[in-house]
């Protein structure tokens, strides 16, 4: 049975709101993801594993480090 943490990591990215601010419109236009607040400082991008990988690659190309 798969590890829940591993599944969660493959379907979401959590970022500082400030980090996503300049790219949020592009992410929403290009990818089928949901963007939801985690707290006052962070947001969560949720999507399928394939889409999350594509979003991660897009963010990396735009200078955003994903841990």
Can you put this structure into words, describing what you see?
This protein is of the alpha+beta class and 67 residues long. The chain has a single domain, classed as 2-Layer Sandwich (Ribosomal Protein S8, Chain: A, domain 1), CATH 3.30.1370. The protein has 4 helices and 3 strands. It has a 3-stranded antiparallel beta sheet with strand order 1-3-2. The model has no long low-confidence stretch (mean pLDDT 89).
List keywords for this structure.
single chain, Ribosomal Protein S8, Chain: A, domain 1, 4 helices, 67 residues, three-stranded antiparallel β-sheet, alpha+beta
Poorly predicted runs are none
Number of helices: 4
Please state the overall shape, judged from the principal axes of the Cα atoms. globular
Order of helices and strands: HEHHEEH
Structural class designation: alpha+beta
Instruction: Bin the strand percentage.
Output: 15-25%
CATH architect. name: 2-Layer Sandwich
Q: What is the CATH third-level topology name?
A: Ribosomal Protein S8, Chain: A, domain 1
Assembly state here?
single chain
Helix content range:
40-55%
DSSP strand tally: 3
> What do the pLDDT scores average to?
89
**Nearest-angstrom radius of gyration?**
12 Å
**What order do the strands of the largest sheet run in, or round the barrel if closed?**
1-3-2
Level-1 CATH class name: Alpha Beta
Amino- and carboxy-terminal Cα gap: 25 Å
Q: Any idea how many domains?
A: 1
Biggest beta sheet summary? 3 strands, antiparallel
């Amino acid at each position: 049975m798969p590890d829940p943490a591993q599944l969660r990591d493959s379907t979401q990215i959590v970022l500082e709101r400030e980090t996503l601010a300049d790219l949020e419109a592009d992410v929403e236009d290009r990818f089928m993801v949901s963007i939801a607040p985690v707290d006052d400082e962070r947001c969560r991008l949720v999507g399928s594993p394939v889409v999350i990988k594509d979003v991660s690659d897009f963010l990396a190309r735009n200078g955003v480090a994903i841990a």
